[in-house]
Design goal:
By secondary structure, the chain is mainly beta. It has helices at 156-166, 199-209; strands at 7-12, 21-26, 35-36, 40-48, 52-61, 64-70, 75-84, 91-99, 107-113, 119-126, 131-138, 140-144, 226-230. The chain folds into 2 domains: 7-138, Quinohemoprotein amine dehydrogenase alpha subunit, domain 2 (Lipocalin, Beta Barrel), CATH 2.40.128.120; 140-230, Orthogonal Bundle (Type 1 dockerin domain). It is 10% helix and 40% strand. It is elongated.
Length: 231
Amino acid sequence: MATHYRPTLVAAAITSVIAVVIVVSFGRPPTASAVIDLTGEWTFSTAGDVTTVCETVIQHTGDEITGTFDCPAYDGAFQGTVVQEPVGAIMDATLTIYPQGFPDVVWDLVGTVSANGNTFSGDWLADDNDSGTYVGTRHVAVYTVGDLNCDTNVRAVDALTAIRFSVGAEVFQYPDCPVIGVEFASLFGDVDCDDQVDQGDALRILRYAGGLPVPSIPDCADIGSQVTAPN
C-alpha cells in the first residue's frame, strides 16, 4: 500500500515582528523523514493581533536554522536548532531571535507547505498570547528550459553553449544565469534529463530553435517551458 505524505510546518519568530523561520517536513514512514530545504529569500505576511509584512533570508543546513529579517518596524537576526519529534512527522524549531532593541519573544507557527516548497500558510501563537494567521512566499527566479545563456530566447547559440560546455570550453552566460551543470530542475542545461549536459542536449535545443519537432520526455520539462528556482 502506498504511503501518503502530508506536509506540515512548525516555526518560531519574535515580538511585534514576524521574523519567520520555518522548518518543514513531510508525513513519513516509521524509519524515515524528508525535510524541505528552506534556504533562500522569503516574504512573510501576518494577520491577527499583529499585522505586518517582513522580508526574511534563511540559511538551512542540517538541523541548523539561521538568518536575518527586515520588517517595517523591526529588523534583526535569528538562529536555532531543529529537532525531529519522536512520534509523527512534526519538526520543532527552537530559535533565539535578536530583534534590534527589543527583548526576545518566541512565536510558534504551524501550517502546511506546498508540494514545491515555495509557499506555506497556517496559524501563529506568541508566548505573550498574541495569535493570528500567516502566509509565507519564497522568492523564486524563472528560467526558460533550453535558454542556457539566459537571454530569454532559445536559439542555436544555446545549442553551441551546450556543446562548448560538454567539451570543457569556456561558455558565455548573462549575469545571474544559473551555472550550466548545477542542480536546477534536474541540471541546468540538461534538457533531456539524463543527468548530464552534452551533445544530446545540444541537438534537442537545435531542433527546437529550428522549428523541428522535439519529442517530450516523461517527467522532463519541455524546451521553451518555464521552471523556477529559489533565489
